[in-house]
């Protein structure tokens, strides 16, 4: 009788460990971070993008990339990667501290940087989750 109890305990303990590992793995794999909204703007006021657009004059001086993030896992981070003519100009890590979070990064724009721009948004695990393009004229 004693051997059956010990065997049952070991099997139950191993099953519990396997179930716990599966739960942790599935939560990590299924955790999702997505962009609900993305805007390029001339300014941010009260965590809202102001004067948004897809084309800006080369005298703009500075632009903001505003993102509203939805995530199943927090705290976490996202990264804004600013590209000019397909070259990385800046990488800005940003905190996400709630299931829905508004955040932004900014980039000084020199008058000579006329052309095509893009901002890519990456989740904490390095997955590209959204992007937006704009131009400087």
TrEMBL record:
Domain DUF2914, by residue range, is 76-136
Instruction: Determine the domain of life of the protein's source.
Output: Bacteria
Which InterPro entries did the record assign?
A: DUF2914
Q: Which organism is it from?
A: Flexistipes sinusarabici
* Name of protein: DUF2914 domain-containing protein
């Amino acid at each position: 009788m004693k051997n059956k109890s010990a065997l049952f305990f070991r099997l139950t303990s191993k099953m519990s460990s396997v179930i716990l590992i599966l739960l942790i793995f599935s939560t990590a794999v299924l955790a999702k971070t997505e962009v609900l909204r993305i805007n390029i703007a001339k300014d941010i006021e009260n965590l809202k993008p102001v004067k948004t657009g897809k084309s800006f004059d080369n005298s703009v001086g500075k632009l903001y990339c505003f993102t509203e993030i939805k995530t199943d896992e927090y705290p976490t981070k996202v990264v804004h990667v600013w590209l000019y003519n397909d070259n990385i100009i800046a990488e800005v890590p940003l905190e996400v501290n709630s299931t829905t979070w508004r955040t932004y990064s900014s980039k000084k724009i020199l008058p000579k940087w006329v052309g095509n721009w893009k901002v890519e948004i990456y989740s904490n695990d390095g997955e590209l989750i959204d992007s937006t393009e704009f131009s400087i004229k």
